[in-house]
Specification:
Glutathione S-transferase Yfyf (Class Pi), Chain A, domain 2, 54% helix, binds glutathione, 8 helices, Glutaredoxin, single chain, alpha+beta
Length: 217
């Protein structure tokens, strides 16, 4: 099986990178140069007409959207246990993946790219503030879900990778008003994630990718 991950430094393509490493999959990475707007090139739009990363090309067929990609990895590498095996918990995990993708990620985007959401000059700080309010709600909930536990479920799953990216990105963006100390369980989760071999491999790769495409932190 040939796998190629289309990836951009600092972006949510970190999530399938971690999961592919956790799965022990062999895969190539194509670093998409967003500074040159490569995601809008005709070649990339053929793969992903939504001009987003990640895209995972599986034996020549592109699959888009983190939720779908991470479910695909979980299903095709069952030994990695990237989803809980109990069916009720499996659906709960899918709900959490959808929450990361469609709840938390958009709030991070309000902070990272406020001008995309409101083009009235001078409103960036307000848009960021809306993002901070939303993130506070999401991270407070995540903090309670992680209370007294190492991972969102009984063992590491794809939910941990996805949540990790949202929290890391929010910390790196460091918007005014987001007090990260308010989420001690999320911080402990971040530290546990950073100790994993898969995340260390990702962060090493990230450094090299940032040299090629210096998009920021
Ligand atoms: N719903 C998508 C969101 C993907 C997404 O927003 N990717 C951003 C990076 S974090 C991107 O590629 N942005 C480039 C663009 O919008 O042109 C998913 O979860 O895979």
């Amino acid at each position: 099986m040939m796998l190629k991950l289309y990836y951009t430094p600092i972006a949510c393509s970190m999530v399938p990178y971690i999961n592919l490493v956790e799965a022990g999959a062999e895969f190539d990475v194509h670093v998409v140069d967003v500074l040159k707007r490569e995601q809008n090139s005709p070649e990339y739009l053929e793969l992903n007409p939504k001009h987003k990363v990640p895209t995972l090309v599986i034996d020549g067929s592109p699959l888009t959207e983190n939720v779908a990609i991470n479910l695909w990895i979980a299903r095709n590498f069952p030994a990695a246990r990237l989803l809980p095996s109990n069916p009720a918990e499996e659906f709960q995990a899918i709900a959490h993946l959808a929450w990361c993708a469609s709840g938390i990620h958009p709030a991070v985007s309000l902070i990272g790219s406020p001008q995309r959401y409101c083009d009235v000059p001078g409103t960036e700080a307000n848009v960021r503030m809306c993002g901070v309010k939303l993130l506070d709600e999401h991270f407070t909930l995540a903090d309670s879900l992680l209370s007294g536990r190492e991972w969102f479920f009984d063992h590491f799953t794809a939910v941990d990778s996805h949540f990790f990216w949202t929290f890391l990105r929010a910390i790196r963006l460091a918007p005014d008003g987001l007090d990260i100390a308010r989420y001690p369980n999320c911080n402990a989760h971040l530290a546990r994630m950073k100790a994993r071999a898969s995340v260390q491999k990702l962060l090493d790769f990230e450094k090299q990718a940032l040299e090629r495409v210096p998009v920021g932190r």
